[in-house]
């Protein structure tokens, strides 16, 4: 059992337990026996044809799970959706990664996958925005685009036959992320949705929910093309610009508030989506909870209770 | 010395075929991809799994399967006498190797080519049967990390003292010098992946002792399954729709 490592007093413990029990009772109605562990037999109708998907294997004619997770059935396909695993990329996913290496015509990005992902120089929009062949000069100037340890947002392009992963950043919205915080949560907590880029107007913040569980919370940037132009004579000017680009205190506090909301949700193991993050952040500000107190046990309990209430309302509405 | 009293009780009050109390907890190391604590009586072991991740040493990379590494260590405070053991002594290298081979046999390594899986196990309290406890902890940690496996591996030891087969030896019984049989099984496939013995035994008695250890493994397997299922359910219902 994954316990929360929080100092709870007696009442808080009871309140948290009650909230979690409520969540349990709400979800168990939908699927109670769908959870499997390693080497559990998955019940299927052997007379019908079925396809075995990820997380399953064939053992003496029986279908057996190879990971802990939830059994999903789509038409004929039977697979196990693993909880708490490394990120499994799908083409078109939006991911946030950290540059670990600048290599020949490519960057290597850490994206919580079993290997480092590759972002080719040729699959990236040039800072000047012109479509042209990449020259040797561009290659030499790669560090002016991304350096080691930069945080980058990109899209999954394709897989190679050897299982390595290629990314692309062919739009204004992708690229280097600055002035913010990178948070790492379990990838299964981020659901695939239409929109992974969020602009939270009331906070003036950009929120990027990477499908790989890397979440970016940063200052809002109009049309993300503010990359520093890669010319030697401009470098002096750009450093001056950098110094001037100062993030006001209020903005930093907003970033921290949103970031802490994400942290609270991820330690409680709740789904991390934009609405819930905003709701959590607003709950904290409406109750006048200081930013640093958001990581305390009292706020965790409050959020858990809130979530239990919200989900029970949702299920009532469905009926 | 008398290890089994005339009433049929062992030094710590157990019956010959009784196991110590087992307890497991998942998710004890926050930064690791998977982690677990496993206790068998006073033996307490912590395991952390990292990966599958990019291979650190490029020359070790295997193009069609994952590289599995394992490191076993004993905390300085784990035993009664507080002796500082040099890292990488013979005993711990051997146990590292044993655990690595056992775990590698059950991980579906071909699904994660060009990557590496690190398993770290540390003994926090040693009271006999650390080898088995480490394997059980490593299984739990691997399952927690979501690494695909053929089956869970569970392990348990048994011995033979005072012409009685004894299940799950503690430190005093272990140091009596009698045979100590450590068995690791895949319960679903009903196969043996690990079998070690450090003394001689007649064949018919050996079969008895090994049978006893296998029963112990199955009991451990049932418990581990329960813990894993509980953990999975909890993760699922917390996440919501």
Automatic annotation (TrEMBL), chain A:
CDD domains: KH-I_Rrp4_eukar, S1_Rrp4. GO terms for biological process: CUT catabolic process; exonucleolytic trimming to generate mature 3'-end of 5.8S rRNA from tricistronic rRNA transcript (SSU-rRNA, 5.8S rRNA, LSU-rRNA); nuclear polyadenylation-dependent rRNA catabolic process; poly(A)-dependent snoRNA 3'-end processing; TRAMP-dependent tRNA surveillance pathway; U4 snRNA 3'-end processing. Transmembrane segments: none annotated. InterPro entries: Exosome_RNA_bind1/RRP40/RRP4, KH_dom_type_1, KH_dom_type_1_sf, NA-bd_OB-fold, S1_domain, S1_RRP4. GO terms for molecular function: RNA binding. The keyword RNA-binding applies. The keyword Transcription regulation does not apply. Its main location: nucleus. Residues 90-170 form the S1 motif domain. This is Exosome complex component RRP4 homolog. It comes from Herrania umbratica.
From TrEMBL, chain B:
One of its GO terms (molecular function) is RNA binding. It comes from the Eukaryota. GO terms for cellular component: cytoplasmic exosome (RNase complex); nuclear exosome (RNase complex); nucleolus. Belongs to the RNase PH family. This is Exosome complex component RRP41 homolog. It holds the Pfam family RNase_PH_C. It comes from Herrania umbratica. The lineage of its organism: Eukaryota, Viridiplantae, Streptophyta, Embryophyta, Tracheophyta. One of its GO terms (biological process) is U4 snRNA 3'-end processing. It is found in: Cytoplasm; Nucleus, Nucleolus. Keywords: Cytoplasm, Exosome. InterPro entries: ExoRNase_PH_dom1, ExoRNase_PH_dom2, ExoRNase_PH_dom2_sf, PNPase/RNase_PH_dom_sf, Ribosomal_Su5_D2-typ_SF, RNase_PH. Residues 18-148, 151-216 form the Exoribonuclease phosphorolytic domain. Coiled coil: none annotated.
């Amino acid at each position: 059992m994954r316990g929360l490592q929080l100092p709870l007093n007696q009442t808080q413990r009871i309140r948290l337990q009650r909230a979690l029990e409520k969540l349990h009772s709400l979800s168990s109605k939908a699927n109670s026996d769908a959870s499997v562990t390693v080497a559990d037999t998955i019940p299927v109708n052997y007379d019908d044809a079925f396809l075995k998907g990820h997380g399953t294997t064939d053992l003496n004619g029986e279908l057996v799970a190879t990971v802990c997770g939830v059994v999903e059935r789509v038409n004929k396909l039977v697979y196990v959706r693993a909880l708490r695993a490394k990120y499994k990329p799908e083409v078109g996913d939006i991911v946030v990664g950290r540059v670990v290496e600048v290599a020949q015509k490519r960057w290597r990005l850490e994206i919580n996958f079993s290997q480092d992902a590759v972002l080719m120089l040729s699959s990236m929009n040039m800072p000047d925005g012109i479509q042209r062949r990449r020259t040797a000069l561009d290659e030499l100037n790669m560090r002016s685009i991304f350096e080691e340890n930069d945080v980058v947002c990109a899209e999954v392009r394709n897989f190679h036959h050897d299982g390595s992963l290629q990314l692309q950043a062919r739009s204004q919205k992708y690229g280097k992320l600055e002035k913010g915080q990178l948070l790492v949560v379990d990838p299964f907590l981020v659901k695939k949705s239409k929109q992974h880029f969020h602009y939270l107007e009331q906070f003036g913040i950009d929120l990027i929910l990477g499908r790989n569980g890397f979440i970016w919370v940063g200052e809002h940037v109009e049309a993300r093309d503010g990359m520093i132009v890669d010319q030697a004579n401009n470098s002096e000017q750009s450093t001056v610009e950098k110094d001037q680009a100062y993030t006001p205190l209020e903005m930093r506090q907003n970033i921290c508030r949103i970031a802490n909301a994400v942290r609270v949700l991820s330690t409680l193991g709740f789904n991390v989506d934009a609405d819930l993050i905003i709701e959590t952040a607003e709950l904290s500000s409406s109750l006048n909870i200081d930013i640093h107190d958001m990581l305390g046990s009292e706020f965790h309990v409050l959020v858990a209770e809130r979530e239990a209430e919200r989900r029970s309302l949702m299920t009532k509405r469905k009926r | 010395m008398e290890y089994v009293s005339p009433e049929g009780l062992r030094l710590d009050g157990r019956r010959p075929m009784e196991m110590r109390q087992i307890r497991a907890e998942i998710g004890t190391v926050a930064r690791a991809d998977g982690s677990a604590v496993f206790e068998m009586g006073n033996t307490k072991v912590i395991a952390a799994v990292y990966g599958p991740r990019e291979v650190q040493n490029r020359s070790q990379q295997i193009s069609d399967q994952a590289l599995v590494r394992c490191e076993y260590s004993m905390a300085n405070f784990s035993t009664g006498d507080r002796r500082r053991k040099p890292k990488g002594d013979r005993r711990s290298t051997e146990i590292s190797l044993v655990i690595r081979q056992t775990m590698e046999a059950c991980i579906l390594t071909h699904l994660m080519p060009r990557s590496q899986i690190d398993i770290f196990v540390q003994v926090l309290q040693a009271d006999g049967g650390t080898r088995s406890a480490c394997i059980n902890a490593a299984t739990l940690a691997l399952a927690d990390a979501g690494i695909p496996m053929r089956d869970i591996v569970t392990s348990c030891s048994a011995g033979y003292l005072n012409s009685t087969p004894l299940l799950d030896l503690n430190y005093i019984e272990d140091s009596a010098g009698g045979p100590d049989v450590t068995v690791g099984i895949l319960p679903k496939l009903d196969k043996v992946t690990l079998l070690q013995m450090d003394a001689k035994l007649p064949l018919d008695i050996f079969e008895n002792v090994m049978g006893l250890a296998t029963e112990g493994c199955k009991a451990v397997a049932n418990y581990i399954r329960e813990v894993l299922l509980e953990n999975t359910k909890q993760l699922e219902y917390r996440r919501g729709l």
